Amino acid sequence: RLWKTDDPALRRELRATFSEADAVRFRRPIALSVRGSLGSPLQLQLADDQGRAVTVASAVLLEAAVSQPLTEERLREQLGRLGGTPFRLGEFRSSLPPGLILPVRELNRVRREGVERLLALRARPPQWRLNAGPLLAAPPIAPEPGAPSPDLIAVIRLPEQLAPAWHAGARTIYCEFENPKRYRDAVGEFRALASDSAGASIWVAPPRIFLPGEEWILRQVESCAPDGFLARNYDHLRFFAGRRLRGDFSLNVANPWSAGHFLGRCGLERVTASYDLNLGQLEALLRRTPGSRIDITVHQHMPMFHMNHCVFCAFLSTGRDYRDCGRPCESHRVSLRDRVGADLPLKADAGCRNTVYNNRAQTGAEYLGRLKDAGAVHFRIEFVNEGPEEVARTLDRYRRLLAGEITGPELWKELRLLHQLGVTRGQMDG
Asked: Which of 62, 116, 168, 297 could be joined to 380 by an S-S link, Cβ 3.0–4.6 Å?
């Protein structure tokens, strides 16, 4: 093998592209048009491919030619001399009557002035003009039938959290388990608990991230026959089309237009407001969208980040993925310890992706009254690894808060929660 380590000719060619500062590397076409009449100035218009145009008039009047009149060919040849400029001649049109003449030096001057003016026009920043028409209106969304009263939605991530959540008064349950095969047992348990309770419902969540080839996971989720599904991305909207659907926070509903898109066009029953909204923005959303169609998350362990690397598989098995790891995520609880000693809960999904959660739950309990006044009626209480007693205690305190028996500050101080609504404290000061 012979390895060529240098090519002087290629090096010179490359160096010329950056050493000659004034060299033009690209020429764009411009259209030239000429018009005029005997005894009047010649008018030259130059127009680029983006609609910019300038017109230059000659300082010398057109005269009758004794010899060598300005033919279209002569005008094209003389005015098309654009070397040294970033332009080249594209379309050319002339409407000059025959038998006229203009000095060549004047033709050259008109061409140069036209090029300079077009370059100056192209150097200006774009000028935007506000459309005088009506602004885009958010689509009208009908509220839920009837007059729903404020309720709590328990979001559980362990099967053993289901019964405590039910007995604490939660009549709507959202499930997000590592293994979708466990949804069937959870739905059966819920049916037994809710046999005499009208209006109770259980919803299951597919993994938040979907990759091509993972339809088998969605089929497992579908097979458990819940009351509905929590849509978390557009693949879920397509796969579960025609089923009862509600939108998770990952759909990023942050304004009436996105709410209207998912509720109206995509047919979702309800959507969850984005975690990025502060209190004032949530109130603004509720003023433009029926509160009965929006879930508000008021208690949660904020998901901090996702990763494709499965910690469970890497440290608790000798396998490579879900096919041979033995699913240690179903029998072990794992946390990552940060630099200050906090243990951050870790959860896996069916595709072996891991999510790290904040170790402390945060609450918007202090703002519950304002959210209710703005029209909110559905409040999500999310759990990660909480035991049955903590699940029951937490839901009981929020039930009492909704009933006006305790205040928001009393709740977050008693439960030792982070007093924060949404992603960052600075954004969420209302």
From this structure: 297
At residue 98, the 3 state secondary structure works out as coil
Which CA distances in Å does 319 have to 308, 315, 324, 348, 352?
Answer: 15, 10, 5, 15, 12
**Token pair 């929006």 is at which residue?**
294
pTM over 0.85: no
Question: What residues contact 171, with CB distance under 8 A and at least 6 apart?
Answer: 151, 194, 197, 199, 200, 201
List strands edge to edge, sheet with 53-61.
53-61, 41-47, 28-35, 87-94
- Tokens describing residue 278: 């502060």
280: its two tokens: 């004032």
In angstroms, the CA 396 to CA 425 distance is: 25
CA atoms in the 13 A half-sphere facing the CB of 426: 0
Give the sign of the dihedral formed by CA 213, CA 216, CA 217, CA 222: positive
Structure tokens belonging to residue 355: 């999510």
Per-residue b or e along 277-303, where b marks 16 or more CB atoms closer than 10 Å to that residue's CB = bbbebbbebbeebbbbbbbbbbbbbbb
Residue 258 CB contacts under 8 Å (≥ 6 apart), including other chains? 251, 252
Displacement of CA 75 from its chain's centroid (Å) = 54
Distance CA 385, CA 357 (A): 10
CA distances from residue 250 to 180, 193, 342, 351, 358 in whole angstroms, order as listed: 19, 30, 26, 18, 17
Q: How many Cβ atoms from other residues are within 10 Å of residue 45's Cβ?
A: 17
Q: What is the pLDDT of residue 188?
A: 96
Nearest to 429 by CA among 420, 370, 376, 417: 420
pLDDT in tens, 98-155: 999 999 999 999 999 999 999 999 999 887 877 776 666 777 888 888 778 899 999 9
Residue 181 near residue 322, CB atoms below 8 Å: no
Contact 357, 347 (CB under 8 A): yes
- Residue 371's nearest CA partner among 231, 277, 270, 250 is 277
Two tokens, residue 7: 């090519």
pLDDT value at residue 426 = 38
